[in-house]
Amino acid sequence: MYTKVMSGENSPFDEFYYVDALAGTGLSEYENGDCFLGSPILASKSAAEPFKKMYFIEGDTNNAEALEARLELAFNDSYFDVQEPEDWEVLPGDTNERIDDVVTDIWRQRSPGAKFHTLTFVDNQAMDFDWVSMEKMAELSTDFLVTYQGAQAVGMNINIEATHRGKLKDHFGRNLWDHGLETREDYKQTYIKQMRSLFNSDSIQIPTKIYSGRKSYDYDVVYGTRETKNGSGYVDAVKYVKEFVENFDGRDVEDMIEVINGNQSVMEDFLPKNAEIDESLLGGNNKDEDQRSLTDWC
Ligand SMILES: C[S@@+](CC[C@H](N)C(=O)[O-])C[C@H]1O[C@@H](n2cnc3c(N)ncnc32)[C@H](O)[C@@H]1O
Question: Of 63, 66, 141, 286, which residue is least crowded by CB atoms under 10 Å?
């Protein structure tokens, strides 16, 4: 959706970049051994237009090496049908340190006079990405897609004063101990409000709740973007995806695996009906075929 809107004729931007601030290994494994594409490969595979450059930051050395090898394979073996961006780089190391290199490099890569835009994906496992890093990315024009761990990482620490002086402070950019916030929801709303403050003009933050199906394990994925006056249909499409995802939980994963393995009709059966959105934004390059079979990637 992002690359479609950014490369569309109404877009004021000439170039777009992708930053995966917590990139992982390129794959994740389901408990039965099936493998799923991770965000670096999915983002490359489903981009309607290739990014000018994609940055993948990963702190674990083994993960970073695995990711680099998988991307090399995915981009160079036509069997996998993943389009290679104009340029890409895996940056091993702490994301809160490497983010400076990314920002500097985007300025360097930019074609003279080009207006550029960035999609920043921050897939926090815990409170990994510091607020100061969010601010650094926000100095570029960027949309954010942020995993906010409101139940586990943040939620489990809100009553611990020491964490307020440590990791919680880094994550929110300030010590919230004496701010009268009581519930997990208060903290989530504060984070979302802070995300809004990163944009110079009107912006919209769309939190999407992800239910695992297990007790007390859920999180939000917050999409932050500027609201455009003429409306690209983009925000409506993001809200539509929110509805789709929120109707889903861990118990539905088995059904989805059946779909991906070709044993059950089609992905569209899961979509909410009668949504008034621009459907062309939802189809990727290859609709249901982003992952052809789970064994392809193992
Ligand atoms: C939730 S996983 C990412 C999954 C990935 N987005 C995907 O779709 O497959 C988070 C990743 O961030 C890495 N990580 C955690 N803290 C980090 C840090 N401070 N700097 C860099 N990487 C970090 C972990 O090693 C892990 O691979």
Answer: 286
